[in-house]
Every structure is written in C-alpha cells, then in structure tokens.
Amino acid sequence: MIFPTAPTMVDLFSGAGGLSAGFSRAGYRLIGGVEHWEPAAKSLQVNHPNAYVETRDIQTVDASEFLSRLASRPHLVLGGPSCQGFSTSGGLSRSTGRQLEDERNSLFLDFVRFVDVLQPEWVVMENVPGLLLFNRGLVAKEVIKQFRIVGYHVAPIILLAADFGVPQLRRRLFFVGNRTGAKIPFPVPTNGNPNLWKDFALPFEHLSRIGNKSTDMRLSPHVSFEDACGDLPPIMPGGEDDRVVSYTGQARSEYQRMLRGRARKVTLHYAFQPTEFERRAMEYLKPGQNWTALPSELKIGRFAKIRPYDATTLLRRLSSDLPAYTINTKFNDSTTGAYIHPNQNRTLSLREAARLQSFPDSYIFTGSVSEIRKQIGNAVPPLLAERIGRAIRRAVFADIGLEADPADEYYQVLVDAHQEVDALIGLKAPRSKKMRAPENQLSLFPFPV
User: Fold this and answer.
1) In degrees to the nearest 10, what's the CA dihedral of 128, 134, 137, 143?
2) How many CA atoms lie within 13 A of 323 on its CB side?
3) Cys-Cys crosslink for 387: which of 32, 62, 187, 413, Cβ 3.0 to 4.6 Å?
4) To the nearest 10°, the Cα dihedral for 159, 163, 167, 170?
5) For the chain, percent of residues with pLDDT exceeding 90
6) DSSP 377
7) Residue 29: enclosing H or E segment and its boundaries?
8) 245 near 271, Cβ under 8 Å?
C-alpha cells in the first residue's frame, strides 16, 4: 500500500534489510541505515536507492553527523543489535556470566544512543528470545530502563513467525515503544496450530503472549514448506546453471503468488554440494525424520555420541505439509539443522531459504553465494516485520498528523509500557540466589541495574 505521505524510518544494524523490507510493505519509507558488513549494506542500498546507508561499525558513527545526512528526522527507528551471547544455543540455564561478558551484548546501548539523538516517535528493536529469558529477565530489564532514561517506554514480546504467515518456526524478540505515551499495539496472529507445543515441557507461555497456543479456529493453518516453495523447479546440488531459471508453472498458493509478485525468473535457486556423509544420510531419511532414524553404521562422529532425545533438528528432512524450522546462516550444512529438502536429496537452495524467510523473489541480494547465504539467514522475516509495522501504523500516523487506513484495526492487543519493569516482562523472580549473576558481571552497562 502506498500512502500520500509515508512515515520515515531508519534501520540500524540493518543487515540485508529484512525489517526495512517488511516495514516498507506496511507503508513506511526508509531514509537511512547503518550496517558495518559491506555485502549486506550494499543489499540494503540497492533495494532502497534513495536512502543514505552508512557502511561502518556503528560504534564509530556519530549519531548527530548521521542525522545531518538524512533528508529529515525519522518517525521510526528500527534495528537488530547483535546480542548473540544470549542466544538459546549458548545455554540459558547457566549463570556463569559468559553471556554477559560477550561484547556484542552491549550494542543495544548504541541503538539507544542513536534513538536519543534521532528522536523518533516510535522504536522497534529486534533480538534473540534468549535476551528476555536469560536469568529471569535480568538483561531485558536493563534494556527497558535504558530506553526510559532517554524518554521512551518499550514493551517486549516474543513472536513466532509462523503465527503471522511466515512458513518457519522462528521465534524473535521485539521491544516496541514510543515517546508519546501511547499504549503499544502488538499484532494478532493470522495463522496457528493449537497442537504445536503439546509435547513440549518447556515454559512456552513465556515465548509469546499472543500466539503459539491459540485454539482460535478462525486462524488459517500455518504456511507449509509446500505452500512456500512447491512451485520451484527441482534442481541438483551444486548446479551453477540453476541460479537463474524460469518458473515451470503457475503459483500454487497465495503465499507463492505474493512472493512472486512481478518477477519473471527464479534467481538464486542454487543448492550447495553435500558431503559424502550427508549424501548417504539423505538417501536414507524420510520426510520428518532426523539423525536418530539412521542405521547404526551411519551414525558416525558426534552422531554416535548424541543422546536420542537431544538435538532433534540436526540432520532432519523437512516435511512438505509443515513449516520449516529456524533458517540460520548454515542452511547449507544439513548436520547443523533441519535443512534437508522434503523430497530431493539436497539442502535448501538460496531461493528456498529466502522464500521461507518471506523475502519476495524480486528482492536483490549482493555478494558471493556464501555472503548471500549469511544475509538470508541473519535477516528478520519481512512478513513478520510487516505485521508489526501494520499493528503500530495507526498510532504512528496519528502521532505525525496523518490519517491511516481504516483496515489498520489489525491489532487487538494493547500493552501499557508504563508498568513496573517486573510486571512488564512477566517473568517470575529467580528461585534462588544461584540464578542471579554477580554484580561485577554487569560492568558493561554504564548505568545501574
């Protein structure tokens, strides 16, 4: 949708522009970005040619100087500062301080620093779910406090991408807030699967206050792998000629029609060559099966040592009728995740991974094959970003004196971000002193916790 006057945005830690792509579809206009990795910065620039993109480490960028290069002050600042020390793959059950000491975890302070100078009405900061869950919300509380120091009240929520039409079981944390005093609107799910978590004992109520366990029969089913990629032609791994091919037929689902748009060709439909071990495993595994289904003679290396109930997404063949698991930067290596095509003996192609991330076929990625793979895996799914952009759009437009589309009654969940921090996070206090991090581990924060 195109509005007569679009609210403007700046994307910090932008990567290839997943957040920007989604918010652009929701009617916002990118005027600036900061990304230190050149291949990703070039991708952002080529897809937003009128935006000013700074290709530098944000810690070396003066926010006031950056503002002077923009066409105007932005109405919205968004971005995803790296906090990989809090990734769930790092082990959230431990409180050794290793996560806190990771220098990447302080980058959110640069996000806050830019917000303080750019003074947008609204902010959206994306991150790993582990940041909220780590040590019962210790770091998330600090994030909220730092935003409050510069005049913004934010509310955190973890959303499952599949609940918003993305064919991927990917959870992401978002801090959404403003300096206007308005309540925070979060998007209501469009898709769901009430049986998704029935066999899990983990506290998934912490992972989303909106979706994940919904029994609302009005929701559409989750978008499946077949819905997302079933129209793409079969390919062999390592086939250089498959990077640009013709569509072999009409789109078979609404999702495919949406991502095809006006594209005439399929680009980046290239799959990496598997190792001999992967090839033998792929020949054996059926849809939905993982390494545990392999015969004992094929369980070599670490697969001979892993307990059968651990690492269940490793060396897993996807199911056509279900969403994919999380797409990360290693979807070329089937031993690191659930990246085997449902019915072809290969890992996912670049285009399939981009489809599962909800990037349109027309989106341009620059760089080498391996650089593009990393850009795709690191991105926020644009469709998830679009849902958030639509949810807050009515409030954003009201704050800048514009009239929003009446269809923006897209959200039903409003959160008061002025609550006490403990209540806002909604996690219980630590059960014992062992769960608390020593005070000296908080030295990376310049303000008291």
Assistant:
1) -50
2) 26
3) 187
4) 20
5) 64
6) H
7) strand 29-34
8) no
Please, are residues 334 and 315 in contact by the beta-carbon 8 Å criterion? yes
Structure tokens at 77: 């600042």
229: annotated active-site residue: no
What is the distance between the alpha carbons of residues 186 and 207, in angstroms, rounded to a whole number?
A: 14
Measure Cα distances from 62 to 53, 56, 75 in Å: 14, 11, 19
Residue 267, beta-bridge partner list: 244
Distances 195 to 121, 187, 199, 210, 238 between C-alpha atoms, Å: 39, 21, 8, 15, 37
pTM equals 0.89
End-to-end CA distance of the chain: 42
Dihedral (Cα; 306, 311, 312, 316), 10-degree rounding: -90
Q: Give CA–CA dist 13/8, Å, rounded.
A: 17
Q: Which DSSP category does 187 fall into? A: E
Lowest mean pLDDT among 184-198, 224-238, 242-256, 334-348: 184-198
Of the candidates 12, 76, 83, 384, the residue annotated as catalytic is 83
Angle between helices 38-47 and 369-378 (to 10 degrees): 70
pLDDT in tens, 184-235: 999 888 898 877 766 554 444 444 545 444 555 578 999 999 999 999 999 9
Task: Tokens for 249, please give them.
Answer: 């037929």
